Structures are given as C-alpha cells and as structure tokens.
C-alpha cells in the first residue's frame, strides 16, 4: 500500500493462527547463548519504527512500553551477562546495571536482574484488527482454497478477483500448500496461560525460564511451551504443569489461572523465514516460516519482499526459498 499498490486480503480469522495466541514480544537477545538475535541491528529498529508508524497512519499505537527484565537463575547466567556486556558487542541491547532485588514482594530474586534494551511487546490483535478495518472492502472474510485459484498470463484470478500475484501467508497451514510442497515448513505447538495476580503492576516483561507479560487489569500472559510431536490446538495438562512449575520457581505470591491457550507456530529447519516466488509460476509467492520471532522479522522482510516484487532487488539469501530449491 505504501508503494501505491492495491491489495486484497483473503482471511478467515476463525481459522488456526499462532498470532491469536502469541505474546507479541520482541527481544534482540538470545539468552541461552547471550548473543544478538540474527540480524537484530537491522530488524529491531525497523520493526519499532514500523509499529510506531501505526499511530500516524491509523491513529493507534500497538507498542507496549514494557522492556524485558531478565531474572538470573544462577551465578553462571549473571556472570555470562556481565562478560558479554564487557566485550562491548551487545551494548545496544544489554546494560551492566544489576537490579539487586526488583519487585521483592512478588519475585524471588536472590541473584538480581537486568534489563534488555530495545525490547518490548506489540499488541498483535490490535494490529490485525486495525489492518482489517483499514482495508475495508478489500478485506474478504473467506477460506482461500487453491482449487479456486486460476493462473493466467496476466497474473491470477480468484472468485472474480484479478491480481498480478498471490502471496500465501498461511502460517503453519502452509505445510499443505500444493505450490510449495518441498519447503521444510514445520509445525511447533506452543501453550500459554492467562493468569491473575492481585496488586502486582510491573513495568517489565519478567523472564526466568518463561515470560510473564503484563496485560493490564491484574492479568498476565505466561509462556511459552514448545512441542514438536503432539501437534494440535488443544491445551494440555502437561503444558499447564510445565508453565506453572516454571512460574512457581520464582513467583512468591499466589495467582489464579484464568485461561489456557494453544497455537501452532510455522517454523523452518534453519530457523529462517520462507520468502520468494515460485520457480515455475512467478505470479505465486510465499511469506511464511516466521516462527517465534515473527514480530521482529515480519516488518523488515515484508518490506524487502515488496522491494523485490516491485523493483527486482534481491532477497536476503538466508530467507529466499531458492536456498531449498537449490538443495
């Protein structure tokens, strides 16, 4: 739309979507290795600027000003954090300021904590609803079935809609797309809890083995689990127990589980998105495989894909689907 193009979005919001469950957290730090997330220097500022632009474009700001606070689980984590900061490569994302006992009435935190810079969360539901409203008549609530798609010399046709291209953004359901059967799109189930904690109003997303994301009105989202075998959208006792065990390791106060949700993430074997056009049918494209970091990845690579479609600029090799076509 920014390039002056007309788009139509076909979507059934009642269908499976990991975005319905996602916390919407963006985090430039990989805690396990204490390293920058892939392409963080480019992705993070682009994502933040994109979400901030919603205020001017749509009159709403989906960004939550709640940076991530990392609670140190052991001395090794704390030492690695300080060593990483001392090397200087992560100065844009971490600080050497140790918070000795933040939220002492609520969090068991004998080793202290620190804060991730340029981190936060996005209200995913608000973004989706805003875009749907803005599209107006160009938002079609329907199931997109590939058997209804007709490829033409000029582009494509679908139920009376003509376009130069169709881009499949189907999440984990893309694993059944007949145009891209060889792409290694995997399904990873994740579960979250919605809990209530009275008299707790943290100004951070708390992270210690799991995240606690403040939603307001004493409600918090807690997540998330990873399951690669039992793929469905049914919350499980196993998922609830796993999250509560992690919560109970550092939360001092009682809480009430209000709800439990499950979703399926679209993931890729090399943890990179799947972006590009079909080798035989250039009017058919894909934008998928954003995994657990979709909030960070989507703005940057959506823009890159548009520039590729409109101006022929090359795609980043690590995300281009040609990496699998070559193999």
Structural features, described:
With about 325 residues, the chain is an alpha+beta fold. The protein folds into three domains: about 10-15 and about 125-185 and about 270-325, FAD/NAD(P)-binding domain (3-Layer(bba) Sandwich), CATH 3.50.50.60; about 25-120, no CATH class; about 185-270, D-Amino Acid Oxidase, subunit A, domain 2 (D-Amino Acid Oxidase, Chain A, domain 2), CATH 3.30.9. It is about 25% helix and about 25% strand. It contains six helices and 20 strands. Strands 7-6-15-16-17-14-18 form a seven-stranded mixed sheet, with helices on one face. Strand 19 and strand 20 (about 285-290) form a beta hairpin. Helix 1 (about 40-60) crosses helix 5 (about 295-310). The chain is globular, with a radius of gyration of 21 Å. The two termini are about 35 Å apart.
Task: Describe the structure in brief.
By secondary structure, the chain is an alpha+beta fold. The protein has six helices and 20 strands.
Q: Please bin the fraction of helical residues.
A: 10-25%
CATH architecture of the largest domain: 3-Layer(bba) Sandwich
Radius of gyration: 21 Å
Major sheet size, sense and barrel closure: 7 strands, mixed
Beta strands, count: 20
What integer is the average pLDDT? 94
Strand content bin: 25-35%
Give the CA-based shape: globular
Class computed from helices, strands and strand pairing:
alpha+beta
Element order: H for helix, E for strand: EEEEHEEHEEHEEEEEEEEEHEEEHH
């Amino acid at each position: 739309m920014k390039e002056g193009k007309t788009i139509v979005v076909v979507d059934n919001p009642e269908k499976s979507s990991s975005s319905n469950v996602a916390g919407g957290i963006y985090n430039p730090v990989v805690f396990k290795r204490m390293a920058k997330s892939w392409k963080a220097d480019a992705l993070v500022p682009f994502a933040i600027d994109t979400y901030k632009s919603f205020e001017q474009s749509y009159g709403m700001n989906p960004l939550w000003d709640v940076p991530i606070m990392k609670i140190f689980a052991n001395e090794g984590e704390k030492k690695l954090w300080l060593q990483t900061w001392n090397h200087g490569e992560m100065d844009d994302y971490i600080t050497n300021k140790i918070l000795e006992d933040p939220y002492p009435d609520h969090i068991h935190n004998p080793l202290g904590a620190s804060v991730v810079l340029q981190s936060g969360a996005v209200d995913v539901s608000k973004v989706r609803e805003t875009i749907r409203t803005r599209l107006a008549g160009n938002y079609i609530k329907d199931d997109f079935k590939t058997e209804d798609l007709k490829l033409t010399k000029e582009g494509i046709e679908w139920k009376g809609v003509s376009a130069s291209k169709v881009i499949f953004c189907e999440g984990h359901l893309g694993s059944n797309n007949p145009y891209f059967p060889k792409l290694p799109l995997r399904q990873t189930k994740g579960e979250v809890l919605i809990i209530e904690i009275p008299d707790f109003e943290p100004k951070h997303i708390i992270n210690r083995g799991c995240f606690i994301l403040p939603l307001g009105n004493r409600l918090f989202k807690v997540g998330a689990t990873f399951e690669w075998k039992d793929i469905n959208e049914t919350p499980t006792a196993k998922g609830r127990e796993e999250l509560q065990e992690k919560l109970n390791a550092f939360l001092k106060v009682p809480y009430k589980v209000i709800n439990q949700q499950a979703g399926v993430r679209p993931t890729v074997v090399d943890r990179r998105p799947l972006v590009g056009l079909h080798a035989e049918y250039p009017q058919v494209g894909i934008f998928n495989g954003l995994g657990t970091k979709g909030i960070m990845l989507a703005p940057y690579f959506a823009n890159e894909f548009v520039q590729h479609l409109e101006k022929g600029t090359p795609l980043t090799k690590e995300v281009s689907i040609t990496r699998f076509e070559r193999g």
